[in-house]
Design brief:
Elements lengths: L3 E4 L5 H15 L6 H8 L5 E3 L7 E10 L2 E10 L4 E9 L8 H15 L4 E7 L4 H7 L3 E10 L2 E11 L5
Parallel strand pairs: 5-6
Antiparallel strand pairs: 1-3, 2-7, 3-4, 4-5, 6-8, 7-8
Length: 167
């Protein structure tokens, strides 16, 4: 099976939302109520992490495509000078376990390195299963934080990793 990684296009918008919604429902099952998840994607609630005010810009979104379908995405951002962020890394539940996430991760790191980032961060909910992925990918715990969705507050953690910038 071939996994194509490419920059997102306008026509991918609906598929990206579908990936995010489906992945969130699986990733945060038992952590965030399904109604709260849906409120984020329906636009009735906004998600805010304590670290998000540090964002100075976007670095783009890559999608993973298998058999002409968008099955995953990674969104990247810029924090302080020299620090990039993997702001979102999600794979549709029916496409997990086949290497999509790892391919997106590697592609995101390459993008950030080429944008002269020497360090990057990724933040996730404290109780998320994704923590294992980030730890296996060589990230180290850098701090505690929180995510606020409407009136709901969830503990979060940040991971960091040093990388060699490519100028």
């Amino acid at each position: 099976m071939e996994i194509e990684i490419r920059w997102t296009r306008d026509e991918d918008a609906e598929a990206r939302v579908d990936v995010l919604r489906r992945a969130w429902h699986l990733a945060f099952k038992g952590v965030i109520d399904p109604e709260v998840i849906d409120s984020v994607f329906d636009g009735t609630e906004e998600l805010q992490g304590d670290w998000t005010p540090r964002r100075t810009g976007a670095a783009g979104t890559l999608v993973a495509v298998v058999d002409s379908e968008v099955v995953g995405l990674v969104g990247m951002g810029l924090l302080e000078p020299g620090i990039g962020e993997v702001a979102a890394l999600y794979v549709r539940p029916d496409s997990q376990g086949i290497g999509v996430g790892a391919r997106l991760w590697d592609a995101a790191l390459a993008v950030l390195q080429h944008r002269n980032m020497g360090r990057f961060e990724v933040w996730t909910l404290r109780d998320a299963k994704a923590r294992t992925f980030y730890e296996r990918a060589g990230c180290t715990l850098i701090g505690d934080s929180r995510v606020v969705i409407g009136d709901a507050v969830f503990p979060a953690v940040g991971y960091g990793r040093e990388v060699t910038p490519v100028s």
